[in-house]
Amino acid sequence: MSGDPSSELFKQMQDPDFYPHPADTVEIRETHISRVFLAGECVYKIKKPLDLEFLDFASLENRKYFCQQEVSLNRRLTQNVYLGVIPITFDGRAYHLEGEGAVVEYAVKMRRLPDNCTMARLLEIDEIHPQEISELANVLVKFYDRPENKDQADRFGTWEVISANCDENFAQTARFAGKLFDADAFTIVRAAMKAFLQRRKPLFDKRAVSEKIQDCHGDLRTDHIYFVDDGIQIIDCVEFNPSLRYGDVVSDLAFLAMDLDSRDQADTANHLLAEYVRRTGDADLFALVDFYKCYRAMVRFKVNCIRAMEEDVTRPEKERLRSEIEKYLSLACDYARRFTRPVLWIICGLPASGKSTIAEKLGEVFQIPVFRSDMIRKQNFASPDADLSHLAFEDGIYAKGVTALTYGRMLLLAQEAIEKGSSVVLDATFGVRHYRREALRLAADMDANIFFVECTAPEVLRKERLAARKTGSSLSDARLAHFDAFRKSFEPLEEIHSNQHIIVNTDTSIDECMGRILYDEYIALPKKHANFGPF
Fold first, then answer.
1. Which of 454, 431, 451 shows the shortest CA–CA distance to 500?
2. What local confidence, expressed as pLDDT, does residue 150 receive?
3. Integer-rounded Cα radius of gyration of the chain
4. What's the confidence (pLDDT) of residue 384?
5. CA neighbor of 337 nearest in space, from 135, 532, 508, 196
6. Which of 256, 294, 482, 519 has the fewest Cβ atoms surrounding its Cβ within 10 A?
7. Which pLDDT value is given to residue 535?
8. Is 372 in contact with 427 (CB distance < 8 Å)?
9. CB atoms < 10 A from the CB of 269, how many?
10. CATH code for the part of the protein at 343-523
């Protein structure tokens, strides 16, 4: 035979008679790394003989190995879909599936799943329901909770590897700047991601040692998720490069959430993330998900850039790819703006409502400074060790004038932190409308987001907490004798817009409280006196 052998093979594979099973027609689909033949009830996937920076399918031996990897790895999230690796032979005259002659290629054989059952298609026709998203979350929770391959996972989960993966993405796409996309937007995203990685290194390190790094899917998208009669089937994980598959579970989830965002399905994405956090208690997810969404948008951006520059791309497909490139770069810019903009957290409420516990936990999650009015007041007007619980309400260092100076100092410290690019937590009663307005003005002047987290608890519990301070130690001097005075003087947060006001009942676990706070901050939806969804 003359010419390109693969061309003749692919020509024969387009003939329904090529297959040893009924196939009325053969449909061909192509990605940047494979050709897929849909024949009757089966699918045959052949890897292109490519050697790219992130994969090597150049040799027949490598293609066989990665076909075997594809079958093995994808069986983790499917049932009776990946049927095996099939050799393709040539007998000197024609090609055959598992026939006589020399093996010239390998194909992954799969059971064909109906196109109208993909998550992408079901979303288009509004046939995905909350219960199905909850079931999907449950499938993923179990998948990420597997104990195997922990040593390998830990090796790929370091901050250094994450940084290298980001750098590789940018290095592999920088050469297309000006040809396929806007160079300025690309530069903004690159700078934002690098800054986040430097600023939040302790959080990445914490994730690496707390079993949050797993052998994941790597390409978790709505096109790869099927809702069929025999359960949820998730196909097409990354088999060709473990560094693109191993990683933080948040990175894997962020890929799907980003894909949902790109399809105007942000509510579905938020519901999925909330369901995952509700099941796992992993509230840190909300501190990282925008960064990983940005990273995943840039992965899709890279894939489309590489495909757009291939020689066999038709003009209509190239135009489609250009549109996809622009879409994913725009998404990445949006995410970058979200995770680089500082947040002024106001943790407020009556004494013994749990403010300081929440403030401390927020500071720990985001690794940002926490300023307590109790500490600032005593540092400036008494001593941190002073017990002034005997003072009457608004007496001594708690007089209105001293309180005004305390709040002024606290807001100044917040301003200094925000000027350095850091978010900040303020822990104080903020029971006077005037001080809340000053905080709002500061956020507006500094172009920072602001959230008022109003801590509440049943009255009997707050009284119990105040009574316990009589024998315990507390920086706060508020006691049970001050209870009624504080309650009567507290001005409700009626002037705070609902999407800046999070109400949390601290008569629950700290994990549940943080889940509510971080979820509501993340989606920034009206929440005052509202249902917190799955929380």
1. 451
2. 64
3. 28
4. 67
5. 196
6. 482
7. 44
8. yes
9. 23
10. 3.40.50.300
What is the rounded CA–CA span in Å between residue 428 and residue 377? 11
Residue 434 is given by DSSP the state H
Q: Centre a 10 Å sphere on the Cβ of residue 399 and count the other Cβ atoms it contains.
A: 13
Q: Looking at residue 513, what is its pLDDT?
A: 92
Q: In this structure, how many other beta carbons lie within 10 angstroms of the beta carbon of residue 205?
A: 13
Q: Among 63, 69, 73, 70, which residue's Cα sits nearest to residue 103?
A: 63
Partners of residue 42 on adjacent β-strands: 39, 111
Segment 201-206 long-range contacts (CB within 8 Å, at least 24 positions apart)? 201/159, 202/367, 203/284, 203/287, 203/288, 203/365, 203/367, 204/159, 204/162, 204/248, 205/159, 206/284
C-alpha–C-alpha distance, residues 252 and 216, integer Å: 7
H helix intervals, 100-248: 119-124, 130-144, 150-156, 159-173, 183-199, 201-208
DSSP string, 368-432: --EEEHHHHHHHHHS-TT---TTSPTT-GGGSHHHHHHHHHHHHHHHHHHHHTT--EEEES---S
Cβ count within 10 A of residue 104? 14
The secondary structure element, H or E, covering residue 366 is helix 355-366
Q: Nearest-CA neighbor of 333 among 307, 301, 305, 308?
A: 301
Nearest to 205 by CA among 160, 145, 244: 160
Query: Any residues with CB less than 8 A from the CB of 160 and at least 6 apart, and which?
Result: none
- The contacts of residue 39 (CB under 8 Å, 6+ apart) are 13, 16, 18, 19, 21, 23, 26, 27
Residue 460: Cβ within 10 Å count: 9
State whether CATH 3.90.1200.10 applies to domain 117-340: yes
The domain segmentation of the chain, as residue ranges, is: 5-112, 117-340, 343-523
Beta strands (DSSP E) in 42-100 are: 42-47, 51-52, 55-56, 82-90, 95-97
- Half-sphere exposure of residue 302: CA atoms within 13 angstroms, side-chain side: 19
State which residues of the chain have pLDDT below 50. 1-3, 525-535
Sign of CA dihedral 518, 522, 523, 528: positive
Query: Strand pairing partners for 95?
Result: 90
> What is the model's pLDDT at position 52?
86
Q: Which helix or strand (DSSP H or E) is residue 462 part of?
A: helix 459-468
